[in-house]
Design goal:
mainly beta, 8-stranded antiparallel β-sheet, 2 helices, 43% strand
């Protein structure tokens, strides 16, 4: 009987998860709201983010990438390069306060942050009144590699969202 108990305990001990995070999908397509702490501007770097519970997708666009003019062609920015994309997993639900307060609050804490290793950001700009410009931001071929070198297998964020700027 002791032998069976020892075998059973061994199976449980070696079959337990070691607690490492396994990310298989980054899905932000269902989140429509693109947030920013400051007014989005064509003359400054813009940090935009989407929050999905305890996850966040952060896009940093360099100054001058957004333009207050209607696009005749799509503007493209390489990642990594002048633009950056980060994916963060937090210890609990995160709000815009985390990104906008300086210094950020102590909780939630970042459990894992992964920088995009490849891909591109495409921006198309339209206007209806020559004063307010709408920028549609799309992500293409984004690749995330975690610290173990594992690639996230499914990135569902083809359309990041839209932001507006004002001329003047």
């Amino acid at each position: 009987m002791k032998k069976y108990l020892l075998i059973g305990c061994s199976i449980l001990l070696f079959g337990c998860n070691d607690g490492e995070l396994q990310i298989e999908t980054v899905d932000f397509d269902s989140i429509e709201t693109v947030q920013s702490c400051d007014t989005v501007s064509v003359s400054t770097e813009n940090v935009l983010f989407k929050i999905n519970g305890d996850e966040a997708l952060i896009v940093t666009l360099p100054s001058g990438l957004l333009k207050n003019e209607v696009s005749t062609t799509e503007l493209t920015s390489a990642v990594p390069g002048s633009s950056q994309i980060s994916y963060r997993i937090f210890s609990e639900t995160v709000t815009s306060t985390y990104f906008c307060d300086s210094p950020p609050p102590l909780t939630p804490t970042v459990l894992e942050e992964i920088e995009a290793e490849g891909g591109s950001i495409t921006i198309t700009t339209t206007t209806e009144d020559s004063i307010t410009f709408t920028h549609t931001i799309q992500l293409s071929g984004i690749t995330f590699l975690n610290e173990n070198g594992s690639r996230i297998t499914d990135l569902q964020v083809s359309e990041f969202g839209t932001v507006t700027t004002t001329a003047g």
